[in-house]
Amino acid sequence: MNNEIESTRQQKIGRQILRDMSDIFSKEAAPLIKGTMVSVTRVRMSPDFSLAKVYLSIFPFERHPEVMKVLEENNWMIRKALGIRVKNQLRIVPELAFYLDDSLEYISEIDKLLKQ
């Protein structure tokens, strides 16, 4: 996806997928992430809606490599759960690409440095 501004439809579908993915992480994927809090911070859709870039915030942050690995290994299961939710809105279920949103960790680090 290039640097073009997202269309209104891309933003709308992205918001819907964000809500659905949040629900999936709190229910179906909960056994996979065992005691880790995973929040969906943002979803970017490709212009043809075939790819959803899902940005995740993981707490505790130290477990992010392990959680990201588990999510990639179970991408098919998460995509299937998403497909059940969006079957009436989208013609195809987008491929999911997970990215770590480490902005909260960055803010925490800056805050810690400022307090020193």
From TrEMBL:
The keyword Cytoplasm applies. GO terms for molecular function: ribosomal small subunit binding. Pfam families: RBFA. Transmembrane segments: none annotated. Its main location: cytoplasm. It is found in: Cytoplasm. GO terms for biological process: maturation of SSU-rRNA. Keywords: Cytoplasm, Ribosome biogenesis. GO terms for cellular component: cytosol. It comes from the Bacteria. InterPro entries: KH_dom-like_a/b, RbfA, RbfA_dom_sf. Belongs to the RbfA family. Monomer. Binds 30S ribosomal subunits, but not 50S ribosomal subunits or 70S ribosomes. NCBIfam families: rbfA (TIGR00082). One of several proteins that assist in the late maturation steps of the functional core of the 30S ribosomal subunit. Associates with free 30S ribosomal subunits (but not with 30S subunits that are part of 70S ribosomes or polysomes). Required for efficient processing of 16S rRNA. May interact with the 5'-terminal helix region of 16S rRNA. This is Ribosome-binding factor A. It comes from Alistipes indistinctus YIT 12060. The gene is rbfA.
